[in-house]
Amino acid sequence: MPDGFTQTLAERLDSLSELEVKEAEEGDILQNGHVYLAKAGWHMEVCKEGSVHKIHLHDEPYREGVRPCANYMYESLADCGYEEIICVVLTGMGADGTEGIEYLQTKKTVKVIIQDKESCVVYGMPGSIEKHKMKHKSVDLKYIANEIILNVGV
């Protein structure tokens, strides 16, 4: 994702959503009803600090050929205080997210929602989840937000 893209995307999604959507910043404290997009060019992880969960951004080397890398973020959730994690995998090239979700499933209860093939521009990432038999539900892009809300109780 090019620099500036995630900020613009977050602003656009925020204008369309009932939830607050923002580009993640170092030290953000996770709040219910909020969506945090990984910042272009930075890996994002979630760390439990005391009674709160915070976002940490890292500029470590590219992983899976990308930065941010979904695997990096999913793996960080293995040590969080949440017992159940909802993972949503949207259109994208490659298999980023698959290894991270596989690892996360060994530590937490995980439900995986993927964007359906028909609404994807590129079915690589969701297709990899399906190939590894990790999906719980496949949903058209226009219904993804509703599916998230149904699963997180917002």
Topology of this structure?
Layout: H1 5-16, E1 20-23, E2 34-37, E3 43-49, E4 52-58, H2 70-76, E5 84-89, H3 98-105, E6 109-115, H4 124-131, E7 137-139, H5 141-152
Parallel strand pairs: 1-2, 5-6, 6-7
Antiparallel strand pairs: 3-4
Helix pairs in contact: 2-3
Spans where pLDDT lies below 50 across 5 or more residues: none
Question: Mean pLDDT across all residues, rounded?
Answer: 94
- Write down the overall geometry: globular
Beta-strand residue percentage: 15-25%
Tell how many strands the DSSP assignment holds. Answer: 7
* Rounded radius of gyration (Å): 15 Å
Q: Kindly name the structural category.
A: alpha/beta
Terminus-to-terminus distance: 28 Å
Q: Could you please describe the fold and organization of this structure?
A:
- The chain is globular, with a radius of gyration of 15 Å.
- With about 150 residues, the chain is of the alpha/beta class.
- It contains five helices and seven strands; from the N terminus they run αββββαβαβαβα.
- Strands 5-6-7 form a three-stranded parallel β-sheet, sandwiched between helices. Strands 1-2 form a two-stranded parallel ribbon.
- The model has no long low-confidence stretch (mean pLDDT about 95).
- α2 runs parallel beside α3 (about 100-105).
- It starts with a helix and ends with a helix.
